Amino acid sequence: INVPGRSALELKKWSSNSARLMADIAVNDRACDLVNFDDKEGGMVKVLGLRWDPVKDFFGFDVQPVSKVVTKRSVLSTIATIFDPIGFLAPVIFHAKHIMQQIWKAELGWDDPLPTDIVQTWRIFLDDLPVLSRIEIPRCLSTSLKAKVQLCGFCDASENGYAAVVYLRVTSASGQVVVHLLGSKTKMAPMKTSTIPRLELCAAVLLARWLTRLLKVFGDRLIVDEIFAWSDSQIVLSWLINPHTCFKVFVSNRVYLVRQLAPSCQWGYVRSADNPADCASRGLLPSDLVKHVLYWSGPVFLMDPVATWNMSVTSMAIEQLPEAKTISLSVQIKPEVEWCSRFSSYHMIRVVAWIRRLFGRARKQRYTAKNSTNRC
To answer: What InterPro entries does this protein's entry cite (predicted)?
Structure first.
């Protein structure tokens, strides 16, 4: 605090969940008092719409729609006001982006009136948007020195796009298990139609990138013992098990990338009903996200011991998988020919004549030059 002050760079708006630290900060330099019940924000510290309560130590959101006019410009402006760098609100933002993609497909101008069905869908979304203020996300991950830590990721895809969700599973020394949502990543499906298995594979790549990024962020501050990943696509899991050289370029490159990004990751199968990335790949309204227990807490089996998890994958035969590389072989079969066809007719006549003469000699027959010629 004092070092920047010597250069006339005094740090202001300090905030902390530690009362001892805040006691050493001048009142004028604090962002807000720890116990300020008269504040309209209830002691919240706001950063670009993302709120932090220093007393309860949780994150929250404050999203209010600004424009009542529904145009392409106002829709994009509203989506941009939702500040969610970690991805807690990924299913809601994905739903809004899907509406925006429909507007792009309609090829409308920035201020042109939108179709009635899109306007109704967007107004329902706007009316539901203030519900996000109810969300409270604990900041602390409750890790300890002797705790066992696992990264658990899930990926899924739909016709609209694909998503990846990651949880931190912490097992204390006493055996108590706590699961924390670390964040989500989503991407819209391309305008050009793609197959569901390809989108599912793109979701696996997105998850591998997200896991790698989290490992770099944690660094030496948090040692991750194991990494697990799940997908509800048997085709993708079979692609990841088999050599990447057996498939076409699109699949081969992405299978190789997943293995390079997360070589120690253990992949398993999860049912769609237990996959928390399913809602993120389809989109949710804010009111649905608030009460979506599977998304916030993860599937129930994460609370069970790791030894009880079924991580076995039933691999499909390569010839049954899509995108398998076709191998063509050109084989030339030479027909069988008689040995005598290798010689000229004149040579064969002379050979046959000498053979018959040999047989005659063996029978003690005499041949004159004339007789030999007539016989042959």
So the answer is: Retrotrans_Pao
Kindly report the CATH number that applies to the domain delimited by 147-320: 3.30.420.10
Share of the chain above pLDDT 70, in %: 89
CA nearest to 292, candidates 301, 280, 305: 280
- Please state the domain extents for the chain: 1-62, 65-134, 147-320
Q: How far apart are CA 301 and CA 276, in angstroms?
A: 12
Q: Parallel, antiparallel, or unpaired: how do β-strands 161-171 and 177-188 relate? A: antiparallel
Phi/psi region, residue 96 (left: phi>0; alpha: psi -120 to 50; beta: rest), is alpha
- Summarised one tens digit per residue, pLDDT across range 86-131 is 899 999 999 999 999 999 999 999 999 999 999 999 999 999 998 9
> What is the gyration radius of the CA atoms in the chain, in angstroms?
37
Reference 312, options 258, 274, 257, 270; nearest CA is 270
Q: Which residues of 90-109 are buried (b: 16+ CB within 10 A; e: fewer)?
A: bbbbbbbbbbbbbbeeeeee
